[in-house]
Design a protein that fits this description.
3-stranded antiparallel sheet; Butyryl-CoA Dehydrogenase, subunit A, domain 3; alpha+beta; Aminopeptidase; 3 domains
Length: about 450
C-alpha cells in the first residue's frame, strides 16, 4: 500500500465521519465543543476511530486559522490542561510500591506521560496531520522566544518527532533536473547557506556531471525535503566557494574527481529543529558517491563560520582575552577599516593574526555548556568530522564578510575514523583537528586531539 493511497483512504474516512459528527452534534454538544481546547478534550475521550480522524482534522483546520494571541492561548492550554494526571501517577506509584509487578510498572510508565503526547498522536491520524504538527511546533518555537513556560510542550513534540522521523522512515533521493518542479522550487526557497539566485543557478548546481544534490524525505511529508546537501566533485580540497559556484568554471569529469565537497547542507523544516538528520545524510551520501565513483576517496565540507565575527569582536573588546597577544590585537584593528579585504597590504597584515584567532576560536572557545561556540562546528564535530583547514577569505560575499570576515572551514569526513572522532567528541568534548590547525595555537590542551595532515 503506497502512501498516496493511504492518505486518500484517510481523507475519505474523515470526509464521511465529519458529516456524522455534525449530525451527532446538536446545540448542547456544539456549545461544549465550541473551542479547540474542548474539541481536544473530546478527541481524548476515545470516540470511534473514523469519527476521531474527522475530529482531529477539524481541530487542525481550526488551529490553522488562529491568529497569534489565540494560538499562544492554545499553547498555554497544552501546557496546563493537557499535562500530567497527578492522581493517576500517585495511584500508580502506590501500586508499584505495594507490588512491583510488570503490570504495575507498565501502568506507572503510562501514567507518567502527559496527556499532550496522546493528543498529538491522535491529531496525527488526520490526513496531513504530521505536516500540520510540524508547522504547529514551528509556531511554538516562535512563541517560546518570550515564553519559557511553554518548553514542556516543546519537549513532548521533540520526543514524538524523534520517533516519527527516525532513520528507518527516511528515504534518500537524488535531486536532479528531472526532479519535479514542486521539489525544485522548495530547494531554491529553503537553501540557507549560499542563495540560489534563479533557475539557471539551480541547474548549475544539480545538472552537470560533476554536481550532486541529495535530500532526505519522509513518507508523511510528500514532496517536502527534510534536509539536503549540495555536492561538488573536484580534484582537490577547495579553499574558496567562488570557484564552485562560478557559472564560468571548468567542469570536472566525474571519473577524474578525487574529492567530494559538501558545500551546502540545509535543514528545511524549522519545526523539526533538534531532530538530527545530518549525520545519517552525510554518511549515506558518502556511501552513494563511493559506490558510484571509486576514485573519490576524500570527503570534505567547505563550511561557513557564522559566529566567528561576533566572537572576535567581543574578544577584541576584552583587554584580558587570552585569544591573542598585543601585536595580533593591534593588527586586527585593521578589520575596522571599510573594505579592508580589498586592500592587499591591509589584508596581508590581518591574515596571520586572524587565522591564529580563528584557530583559538575553534579549538578553545566554549559556550556555557562546554561545547564549541560555533554552531556549524558542533554539527560536524558531533558527526565525526575532523577540523581539517581554515580558509582565508574563502567567501567574500557581503553576508560572509559580516559574519566571519570571509573565513571558511574544511571539515574532513574520513570513513575509517568517523565513529572514533564522534566518540571522542561525544564522550570527552575533544576536538579532532589536523596539525595545520593545531599548530596555530601554541599552548597545547587535552581537549584538542591533533593528527597529522
Amino acid at each position: 500500500m503506497n502512501t498516496t493511497f493511504f492518505s486518500e483512504m484517510l481523507q475519505s474516512i474523515a470526509d464521511r465521519s465529519r458529516a456524522l459528527i455534525k449530525r451527532e452534534r446538536r446545540e448542547p454538544a456544539h456549545e461544549r465543543s465550541a473551542g479547540i481546547v474542548e474539541q481536544c478534550e473530546e478527541l481524548l475521550t476515545g470516540r470511534g476511530e473514523a469519527s476521531g480522524v474527522a475530529l482531529a482534522q477539524d481541530i487542525l483546520a481550526r488551529y490553522a486559522e488562529l491568529t497569534t494571541g489565540p494560538r499562544i492561548a492554545f499553547f498555554e492550554a497544552l501546557a496546563t490542561t493537557f499535562g500530567h494526571d497527578r492522581t493517576r501517577i500517585d495511584r500508580a506509584i502506590a501500586d508499584w510500591k505495594q507490588a512491583p509487578t510488570a503490570d504495575n510498572a507498565s501502568e506507572l510508565h503510562q501514567s507518567s506521560e502527559p496527556q499532550r503526547l496522546e493528543l498529538f498522536r491522535r491529531l496525527n491520524l488526520a490526513p496531513g496531520g504530521t505536516a500540520a504538527l510540524v508547522r504547529m511546533r514551528e509556531q511554538l518555537l516562535d512563541a517560546m522566544a518570550h515564553r519559557d513556560d511553554l518548553g514542556v510542550v516543546d519537549n513532548d513534540f521533540v520526543h514524538l518527532f524523534l520517533s516519527w522521523f527516525n532513520r528507518g522512515f527516511l528515504v534518500l533521493r537524488r535531486i536532479d533536473w528531472s526532479t519535479s518542479a514542486a521539489i525544485l522550487e522548495k530547494i531554491i526557497r529553503y537553501e540557507a547557506v549560499h542563495e540560489i539566485r534563479d533557475w539557471d543557478d539551480l541547474r548549475r548546481r544539480i545538472d552537470p556531471p560533476d554536481r550532486r544534490c541529495y535530500a532526505f524525505f519522509h513518507p508523511a511529508l510528500v514532496d517536502e525535503p527534510l534536509i539536503f546537501v549540495e555536492v561538488a566533485l573536484t580534484r582537490d580540497i577547495p579553499g574558496a566557494i567562488a570557484p564552485i559556484l562560478s557559472d564560468k568554471r571548468e567542469p570536472v569529469e566525474p571519473q577524474r574527481a578525487k574529492t567530494a565537497v559538501f558545500y551546502s547542507i540545509t535543514n528545511c523544516q524549522r519545526g523539526l529543529a533538534g531532530v538530527t538528520f545530518g549525520h545519517f545524510l552525510i554518511k549515506q551520501v558518502v556511501e552513494e558517491v563511493s559506490r558510484e565513483l571509486s576514485r573519490v576517496a576524500t570527503f570534505v565540507t567547505l563550511s561557513p563560520a557564522p559566529n566567528f565575527a561576533d566572537w572576535l569582536r567581543r574578544e577584541r573588546a576584552n583587554a584580558m582575552s587570552p585569544a591573542f597577544d598585543e601585536d595580533d590585537r593591534s593588527a586586527l584593528g585593521a578589520l575596522d577599516t571599510a573594505n579592508w579585504w580589498r586592500m592587499p597590504e591591509l589584508a596581508e597584515k590581518v591574515r596571520e593574526p586572524l587565522l591564529r584567532a580563528a584557530a583559538w576560536y575553534y579549538l578553545r572557545a566554549r559556550n556555557g555548556r562546554g561545547l564549541p561556540v560555533d554552531a556549524v562546528a558542533r554539527f560536524h564535530l558531533g558527526n565525526g568530522a575532523r577540523l581539517e583547514r581554515l580558509d582565508w577569505l574563502a567567501d567574500t560575499s557581503e553576508r560572509a564578510l559580516r559574519q566571519s570576515y570571509g573565513l571558511m572551514v574544511n571539515y574532513l569526513y574520513d570513513p575509517d575514523y568517523i565513529e572514533r572522532n564522534h566518540e571522542a567528541y561525544a564522550q570527552q568534548r575533544a576536538i579532532v583537528a589536523s596539525s595545520a590547525v593545531t599548530r596555530l595555537v601554541t599552548t597545547p590542551t587535552r581537549e584538542i586531539v591533533a593528527v597529522s595532515g
